[in-house]
Amino acid sequence: MCGFVGYINKNLDQIDPLMIKKMMQLQEHRGPDDSGIAVFSLKEKKSISYNENELKNFNVQDDICEFNGGIGFNRLSIIDVTKNGHQPMANENKTTYIMFNGEIYNAFELKEELITSDYNFKSKTDTEVILALYEKYGLEYTLQKLNGMFAICILDLKKNQIFLARDRFGIKPLYYIFNENFFSFSSEIKSFLAIKNFKFRLNKEHLSEYFIFKYLAPPNTLVSEVNLLPPGQYIIFESNEIKKKTYFDFQNFNDKIDSEDNITTKLEKKLELSVKSQLMSDVNLGCQLSGGVDSSLITLFAKKFTKKLETFSIFFKEKNLSEESYVKKVITDLDLINYSSEFNYKNFYNDLSNSIWSFDAPLSQINSVGLFNLAKMSKSRVKVLLSGEGADEIHGGYPRFTRLNFFNFVNKLLQKKFIPLGIVIKKFKIFEFKKLFSLDLNDIIILLSSVHSLKDISNLVPKLDLEKGLNSRRKIIKEINLPNKQKSLIYEMKTYMHDLFIKQDKMTMAHSIENRVPFLDNDLVEYSLTYLANSNFDYSYFRNINKKTKKYLKLISSKYFGKSFSYRSKSGFSFPLKKILKSNDFRKPVENEIIPKIKVNDLYDLNNIIEIWENIDKASNSELELIFSIISFEIWLIKFKVNIN
Predict the structure, then answer these.
(1) 117-151: pLDDT as tens digits
(2) Rounded CA gap, 198 and 277, in Å?
């Protein structure tokens, strides 16, 4: 796990290596163990590299007038912690450089193939395996072979090309800017603050998407000109132009049927193998343990292959939110070491601000602050954490999956005017959007994951063009030509799950910790979507639908932890939002720093915001969520000095 940056002057002006260094410093937390820079000219096919010691007293003494590009790397040493793993890593004659952020879990199987073809390895890193694969087989073949999480940059001076690639599920982030003056890329948006003559401007085109869903799906970000490379894609930069290509998508999905017993047995074995493969590490490793089914299963299989496994948890004072009893059951049953702390609300505003800085965007979920603190607590003991992220999206764990047929049925009744819209809206808020849009089945899938109601958005942020927000998601779902259950899962993976991965990456890397997600093993995902998708959750007309979600994981969990543990109501990592918004420790800085900004931002209806802010107890959950989204958005504007005009 690491971070990298790059910058190329398209007009061939000399690169400023000090700017590259500043870009690296803004994300130094991603790799405090080692660093390096290489400056180059694609045209002249030349390069000069600088190691960590040379960067300490860095001044440009070399003649680099011909060099118009530079790349920089911050390393968090996980596999082969020696200097042999230094990056940017070059081939023998320094004509090809690679920068790699992530882990490749089948790297050493691939390495054996390369050794038999007489490749002489100098390190024990997966980085060198990728470099060797690229040189022997090219990029497309290499990407197809990799099983893991990654963001990759390859600088090929022989071909006058730069490649950027991202793993098939988007576990590792990679951002880029391509305009008339330069091409730049980075593991985190904040590094772009170091670019000369580039100012952060608000991307108003996609602001409505944020206020409907609380986050943006790739390739969009809230900073104009900054793009997020979508999962399963790569970019080729050549002759001052870029080409985008897709190497992985879900369109080749083939539905297959097997017996329930066979599916459960095979799923358990594949999950166990995935966890085992992701325990590769030359440093201390642990598990995030929330007490839910997903993290508990990951912990169960990790314990099977680890002599000393440490787990980490955050608890709440509120008994209705705390999963402490379930965590205690897991650590008792499995005889585990657990480190936990009770969440401190007193520092919530500062923690929120720091989390937003780490996240590079307004926070999509309030529980990110809890994850931020969990990583902070874990830092002194481990450098790698395994988590259960991705299970709900791939295995149909959210109740909203089960409601699609019901909502589609209601929508047809509304279209035929068999029932009044007003009555339906009181019961199901997503149908408020029917006032603006003629909803179809795709729209229902999209809006099932919306957070804020149309009424509240219209009251508090009235100047938004909400159709733009919905259209961004329509583009994504129209590309998924699969049956409804599979479509729902894959849409969720491309949107909500993707945002969860960014959250996990940024909150843990803020404290120099690598996060791994065993549910996202290539083979495991393919098996789950092929054999499980149609039977993993059932459509329902009723609220009590807990047993109808994530069927096979709950069967496995019941085998080890019992039915009462596995079939309880889903709570997630919930926060007492109302309590936080009422706390004086939170209200004081909001009133001193945020409310004045809201007053001068003509995006909002100030009177309605103040009315809710002064009457928190009377506000609906949707209103409270929207108030939090507004506060988070305004903190982000301040922290990143974003121009809103």
Answers:
(1) 778 889 999 999 999 999 999 999 999 999 999 99
(2) 42
